[in-house]
Amino acid sequence: MKNNQTMFKSTLALTAGLALLTAGCASKQPNSALESAQATYARVNDAPTVNEYSTEDLNIAKQKLDYAMKAKKDKKDEYIVSQRAYVAEQYALIAEQRSTLLKYQANITNGKLERTQAQMDLRASEANSARSAAEVLSAKAEQLELEVAAREAKLKAQLAELEELKALQARNTDRGMVLTLGDVLFATGESTLREGAYQNVNRVAGFLKNYPDRSLVIEGHTDSTGDDNFNYKLSMERANAVRFALANQGIDPSRITARGLGETSPVASNDNAAGRQRNRRVDLIFDHVEQTQFTETTVSGIDE
Amino acid sequence: MNVPKIATALTAMVILTQVAACSSGPPPRQELSLTQSSIRSAEAAGAITHASKPFRLAQQKVTTAQSLIEKKKFDKARMLLESATADAELAEATAEAEKSRLASEELTESIALMKEEIARAQDN
User: Fold this and answer.
1) The domain over range B27-123 is classified in CATH as 3.40.30.10
2) Distance (Å) from the C-alpha of residue A64 to the closest C-alpha of chain B?
3) What ipTM was assigned to the predicted interfaces of this complex?
4) Average pLDDT value for residue range A182-192
């Protein structure tokens, strides 16, 4: 019986010891992992974006945290409390990352809309600059058309003038269009125009009236027969006679230059009668048609 | 005789409870494969680049858990696997968040460039 009592006592002691040991596993001391998890959960829960974007993840974190807190309350081993707390904290952080993800995804959605708008704006502005470039080009094309038309008009006018000069029996020479009045139009050795010469003079006057910008040089020539001074004087008088005749037809004499060159500029040999007859002449020299100034029809800004 | 018997029974109960607390159920096969698939998923999300710290932690814990399973320490292994799964999931979430942050910044930058271009075009 004594033995039994001793045994009972020792058994009781052992039981108490084991109970103490069990109690030792679960401490009343705060668990740092649990505190950290609680702080993290509180921080994440307070963040407005987390509440907005990942409520579900936050609920999981809350469940895990409750599970850890229950372990603490049930005085489970500190290691178990810490492990559960660690897991709970990771899930709080997962909730935070998910909300970050969703926030950026929302940014991306908005950004894509904004980018589409910007692309449209960019295309519109490109179209605008293309349009203004096209406008500039079309204005330039229009100007060029005008230039071409002006040049065409000028060429036509020049051609018409040439035709008229050709109709006057003028020849195209290096000095310009030259109309030669033969000596048959003058009395021999005199400067008076014969009747037949007036037909030519009238036609030349008509031409000069059509082209008021034109000036005219009249040159009198003789053959080599006779006195040089006489020849010079005769050629001068014959040139002047044509000038006066034109003036009488209403042509401003200032447009006409008359000079006598005597026998100095033969066009044929003076050794035979035919040559001498060709040398006795009055040349009417019109300016080069190409030199005609059509400034009033020229488009401004175009260099001639 | 009765009292010692009761005491013995009590002691046995306490010991059994203790042993049950520290001993293990079946090996955590499902938990292991769950953790491994979480790690694979995190890796696919780019966790190695964008969330290396929790990713490595998850890998290390799985290795440790596997050796614990070999030593039949199933409970401890189970807990470690739960922790590793949380690490892997955090790694994946972090990687996804980081990737979307980068994409968002890139988009913002491209929009800013386009707006600059528009402003330039309007100046011309």
Assistant:
1) no
2) 11
3) 0.78
4) 77
